What we know:
Layout: E1 22-27, H1 35-48, E2 53-57, H2 65-68, H3 79-83, H4 89-92, E3 94-95, E4 102-105, H5 118-129, E5 134-138, H6 145-152, E6 156-161, H7 165-180, E7 187-194, H8 196-200, H9 207-214, E8 218-223, H10 227-233, H11 243-254, H12 270-280
Parallel strand pairs: 1-5, 1-6, 2-4, 2-5, 6-7, 7-8
Antiparallel strand pairs: 3-4
Amino acid sequence: MDKSKPYPGSPVEARGQTATGRVITVTSGKGGVGKTTLTANLGVALAALGKKVVTIDADIGLRNLDIIMGLENRIVYDLIDVIEGRCKLRQAMVKHKQYQSLYLLPAAQTRDKTALKPVQMIRLAEALKKEFDFILIDSPAGIERGFQNAIAAADEVLIVTNPEISSVRDADRVIGIIEAKSKNIPAHLVLNRIKPEMIKRGEMLSADDVMEILAIKIIGIIPEDETVLIAGNTGNPGTAAKASIEFNNIARRLNGEPIPFPSYDDHPGFFQRLIRMFNNNP
């Protein structure tokens, strides 16, 4: 299979352009940490910066990205329809209602993750890279087939974790798997649902704690914000009160801007002991 050949009906078919877009896979070691929310909000933030963006829901059988983006009623075709030749790529991409440079390629609801192969994701991404500045892939939770599909085409990976020992441990496993593939994929951490008041009391892991455990650079620190849930339920990403500021900062950092991180007072104590326990266990 010629991985460099665009899909039939892709926006760049027969143009002979060179791929320039960046494929960023958003993943984690467990569900419920905020991957899909990050993908949707990051897509909106990048589009607001004037970038052309397509988000891909790689969670075959359990799609949710369309709901958070407010596009669930506009889907006609899906990712597997494209892969299996039932439609052209441009027919399956849904344009966002507010951001004209933002698109969604939805997952299939009636198939399972075996319907997609890593080599097919690579070919799809190569076609999209010629037209879009950013291709954001929303990975399923876990480390099985869906995860393998989602990272196959990645130029970069964003690993989402919550400031909880169990979530950080799962993220550590994902980092190990990515490093073991020897693809030299740059990986960055997004620390989600931070509660500054709990960090100050020494009751929650801080960004420094998490970096010490995982030995990975952080690209985003997102505070707990109940309006994120409201924005997701109403299909209006980018409208959360506090968190949207940090989603926008992540987008700007991806564009190379030196945006400073929010700082929270770190109180050493109980979690420092947990970190030592974590690092002493294989």
